[in-house]
Amino acid sequence: MTGQRPSRHAEEDPRRGALPVAERRTDGGADRGAQLEELSVHAVIRPRGGRLGGSSVVAILALVALLAAGFGVLGGRPQPSLPGIAASLLPSLLANGTNAPAASPARTPSVTPASACGALPRDGPPGVMLTVGDHLMAGQVSAIDDPNATPGPHREPIEIPADATADLRIAAGACATSWHIAVWSPSDGQLYPVDVVSNPDRDPAVALQNEFSLVLAPFRTIIAEQLELHAELQVGDRDILARWPIRVLPFDRPQPRLRISRNQVIPLVEGCDVVLTFGNGYEEPMACSDDLSAELPPATRVAPGTEMSLDFDGWSIGDTIAYCGSSLELAFVLRSAPGCEQHPPHGRFFHAPEAGDWTIALGACAINAGNRICGTWFVDLDTR
Length: 384
What we know:
This protein is mainly beta. It has two domains: 36-76 and 252-382, no CATH class; 80-248, no CATH class. The protein is built from two helices and 22 strands.
């Protein structure tokens, strides 16, 4: 814990980390009832030979996913985000007791509040609450630059699932005109920005907000320590700092496998096009640029025509596509042969191709509890 005030300007503070500020979602949340089985991928594109990179395989699935999202299969058309609420609401919000200076009617705010701005308490700073699911924790609030500010008593951290959204709300709906919300890591002493709006003139025509939806999935890799969420807020004529101890929980990433029999399961190698999309909208691509993320293990011997099933650790699988080819280091090269292009209707079952030494590329999407993973996975099969 620290009682020190975080600097408002990242460029002036060497402690600030390089993680990008999280983008606000525009889709209003993932539809946990999405059914990828409704999508059809094989009619979109067919390869005609030559090299088919992993990105080409997943492009088919990505196109269909985008079309489905636009027509509501993956949760409907995007809804306005908190910054996108109609600017026409601003005059009524100001009339409902905001403590910010009067707005200029000639300007359009870049951020408008989630609800009507409430009044500030007469004495002391407003409270600030952090909600994650059914868990709620009041922030430790102090005035910025308060020489008497202390870390406060030890509190157990609020645990935040990686795919959840952490909602920060100012008490009584009071509105901030400027904010710097960041995660502080005690191991390196750095502040990593999460949501930042600079408005030094406190102009409500630039920004007003009293609720903040935070995506903290990038911090799940820091699991050996307790982190601290900092919210530096300009509310009316007051500058406050609210703090919470937090721990972002790890996420069980699915490990796809190809099952040949009850006792024989082949692990697959992820392609560099694989993207994991969390239920809160955060996207995590693979950190590589080839077709394969790693070299393939030795080929598994199976008889031609052997039925194989794709397993995603219990995730629901949508349409899939399989292509035959060969791999050279981390590159995949398409090869054409009878039975090599497969697109099973329910996405799970494939058959080993004719006799040969093959690298199989499997393009697939799978969903689980609002989370989605899409991309290409590879396996070497020897059917000679």
